[in-house]
Amino acid sequence: MRPDGPPPGPARPEFWRSPLRGPWLTSVLGLVLLVGVTVLFVTGLFSYAAYNPGLGAPNDKTPDKGLLGFYLFPWPAGPPWLYRLNQGVHVTLGVVLVPVLLAKLWSVVPKLFAWPPLRSVGHALERLSLLLLVGGVFFEFATGLLNVQLDYVFPGSFYTLHFYGAWVFIGAFVVHVALRLPLMVRTLRSRGLRAELRTPARRTEPEPPDETGLVAPDPAPATMSRRGALGMVGAGSFALFAVTAGQSIGGPLRETALLAPRGRDPGTGPNGFQINKTAESRGIRAADIGDGWRLTVRFGEREEVLTRQRLLELPQHSAALPIACVEGWSTDDQEWSGLRLTTLAALVGIGRLDAVDGQEGRDGPDGPDGREAPEVRDVPDVFVESAQLAGSFRSAGLRANQVRDPRSLLALRVNGADLTPDHGYPARIIVPANPGVNNTKWVTRLTFGARP
Questions:
Q1: In the prediction, which pLDDT does 369 show?
Q2: Could you identify which of 108, 184, 226, 306 might form a hypothetical disulfide with 27, taking C-beta atoms 3.0 to 4.6 angstroms apart as the criterion?
Q3: 3-state SS track over the chain
């Protein structure tokens, strides 16, 4: 026999009895997510642009993105902390919003079990949008958090899945906001936040029934106020901030980054700072970086092959730059020293040698030791290749504006000491505001004016 109403369980309105549920609490949480998700999406777009996918493979992790890459622009080489700030905000905010997201889903969970599941074509479309919204947000947060924890288990590339997932989610999110924003504004105006935050549990009453269907028809007595519920969510977000943000902020707060596998102190000494991939994990053999190592610099038909000793004899410059990674962790500024990329370009006939050849100096925006930096206008893009045999990011492209920056180096030393193998010995790229994985380690070849 077919029942007249919904089946027993969560499909029945009386199953949900919390007196806190209602359009006002949902709207408060929704407003926080509206702001937070917007910032997440924008910083995510910037994060993808920082890889300069316009250079093609291997920088382009989503080669079939089509119109979804309409916004891409050449990523600037400064200020040097730009990518560190952007990715720190993106990852930390994503972690901090988890309690808000869970609370928001709790506040609307009765709607997910509404009966009948499909009442009309319009209702079916609304349910589909909710499926994309809820499924998309869970997918984005799950892939992002797993990537931060270096425990990525989804099949396929994180970059591709996260990129397309973001666009699916943001499409459903925009539709949802467009449909619900007027109701959210009216609801927030219906009762004052300050007054609600002063209301204890003993005086907490259910919201008046309305068309949203969120208010319990048979509410239980309140055991917590809305102030308590919001406070609990805020405390959870603050706790996550406290154990995450240190990986990006650095300094003494780095010790508090308990949820950041690469955020904590990795040791002492000149090379005592974070790494993402070790030489062993990437198949680097002793022979690859030993005395037989050579750097090949090429432009057109012209080619130079250099030993590490020859590189050390060329003009050396230094720059204080951090390393920042897509997982949100970053180092403090490290003092890198080596050759400007423009110096290497000049060896194969591009531009001219540094105006201060033969001098050693510390590079800043205005040049070494505060002197005006030599200007090289006609340097092209460069394709960087590594001795790395296994894993991703074995090579990367750098745009001309990155090559021209006087702080962009082929680093041979760091903090006064030779690089260790895990930090890229014999030579690695270091470019301001560049994602860490594109600062290629164990460099063996630089090809100017070439794209893969």
A1: 44
A2: 184
A3: CCCCCCCCCCCCHHHCCCCCCCHHHHHHHHHHHHHHHHHHHHHHHHHHHCCCHHHCCCCCCCCCCHHHHCCCCCCCCCCCCHHHHHHHHHHHHHHHCHHHHHHHHHHHHHHHCCCCCCCCHHHHHHHHHHHHHHHHHHHHHHHHHHHHCCCCCCCCCHHHHHHHHHHHHHHHHHHHHHHHHHHHHHHHHHCCHHHHHCCCHHHCCCCCCCCCCCCCCCCCCCCCCHHHHHHHHHHHHHHHHHCCCHHHHCHHHHHHCCCCCCCCCCCCCCCCCCCCCCCCCCCCCHHHCCCCCCEEEEECCEEEEECHHHHHHCCCEEEEECCECCCCCECCCEEEEEEEHHHHHHHCCCCCCCCCCCCCEECCCCCHHHCCCCCCCCCCCEEEEECCCCCCCCEEEECHHHHHCCCCEEEEEECCEECCHHHCCCCEEECCCCEHHHCCCCEEEEEECCCC
Model pLDDT for residues 140-153, shown as the tens digit of each residue: 999 998 888 776 67
- Domain range summary for the chain, segments of one domain joined by +: 13-256, 286-448
For the segment 243-264, what is each residue's pLDDT rounded down to a tens digit? Answer: 999 989 888 888 888 877 665 5
Q: Work out the mean pLDDT of the chain and round it to a whole number.
A: 88
CATH level 3 topology of 286-448: Sulfite Oxidase; Chain A, domain 2 (3.90.420)
